[in-house]
Specification:
The structure holds two protein chains of two kinds.
Chain A: H1 2-26, H2 46-66, H3 70-88, H4 92-110, H5 117-133
Helix pairs in contact in A: 1-2, 1-4, 2-3, 3-4
Chain B: H1 2-26, H2 33-42, E1 90-91, H3 93-97, E2 100-101, E3 104-109, E4 112-115, H4 127-131, H5 139-146, H6 150-157, E5 160-164
Parallel strand pairs in B: 1-5
Antiparallel strand pairs in B: 2-3, 3-4, 4-5
Classes of the chains: A mainly alpha, B alpha+beta.
């Protein structure tokens, strides 16, 4: 049972990230209020920043769900969530996103779990090393 | 197998960067229509021109006239005063624009005016989204986020203060 805890956490948080990405894709104009102030001085439109965020969250959320480069992906997503917390501030949404960031750091520290692409590569690597050892 | 994993990772990285470039080049800052619309709404102000004080008019002193002989006039029966009809205040967008800070925050949504000041810290999505609506027509922002939702509409009804002229 213990081995399933990491899978549930990884897939659950990946699904949450993808859900938020799809919400932003559906109505990007509703999310521009959450952008930090410095984005207004950059040569990309606010809607463009939302689509950038969508692209980032869809890609990394999918990689989180399938468990590919889990440590790095989880670390990047955790830093992304901390950036959102820093922008939004200490309110209901910020505290919730801080919880997500902490969970992502935990996944990053745990690393490869079972039922993941990383584990598949790890298993093949171990099999090859055992073959050479024999 | 590890080299295959690295190759797949590099391939994914290239695809990701291609997506980023596509978005950056297709959404330049010139197409910033939402912000420009909000800026137009928030920048609506009353332009007043100074009005010169009228010159004092001196009236001639009238000659005293003899007091007329008055006859008693029968007083009519008092007519019943009807109950006052409650009137709804009406505000223009320029008046709403004067209330544009977190300590005094009004917004116009769908033809009505709402005082959001007491709701700023109570909004589940954070105070920033409410503060961004202060002093402007927040119809698009509200409907984009909450169209068809009963609870936000109900919360908004409690903050109603008048209609938009």
């Amino acid at each position: 049972m213990r081995k399933f805890s990491a899978i549930i956490l990884r897939i659950g948080i990946g699904a949450v990230i993808i859900w938020f990405a799809l919400q932003q894709l559906a109505k990007p104009s509703a999310w521009t209020v959450y952008l930090p102030a410095f984005t207004q001085s950059l040569p990309i439109s606010q809607i463009g920043f939302i689509y950038l965020n969508v692209w980032f969250e869809l890609t990394f959320g999918a990689m989180m769900i399938i468990g590919f480069y889990t440590r790095i992906v989880a670390l990047f997503l955790a830093l992304h969530m901390l950036g959102i917390v820093f922008t939004i501030g200490f309110d209901a949404t910020g505290v919730r996103d801080f919880g997500l960031a902490v969970a992502l750091f935990s996944i990053s520290l745990y690393g490869t779990s079972c039922w993941s692409v990383d584990e598949l590569f790890e298993r093949n690597r171990n099999a090859e090393l055992k073959k050479y050892a024999d | 197998m590890q080299s295959l994993k690295i190759q797949i990772g590099i391939g994914l990285g290239i695809v990701f960067l291609l997506g980023v470039s596509f978005i950056v080049f297709n959404f330049p800052a010139a197409e910033n229509t939402i912000n420009s619309q909000n800026q137009v709404d928030s920048e609506t102000t009353i332009k007043t021109t100074p009005v010169a004080a009228p010159a004092p008019v001196t009236k001639p002193i009238p000659k005293p006239t003899p007091a007329p002989i008055t006859t008693p006039i029968p007083t009519p029966a008092p007519t019943p005063i009807p109950a006052p009809i409650p009137t709804v205040n009406s505000y223009s967008l320029s008046e709403v624009a004067l209330h544009n800070n977190p300590q005094d925050c009004w917004t116009a949504i769908s033809g009505n005016v709402y005082n959001l000041t007491s709701f700023i810290n109570g909004h589940p999505g954070g105070s920033r989204t409410i503060i961004s609506l202060c002093g402007i027509n927040g119809t698009n922002a509200f409907l984009n986020q909450h169209q068809g939702q009963r609870r936000p509409a109900s919360e908004l009804n409690n903050l109603f203060i008048g209609t938009l002229k």
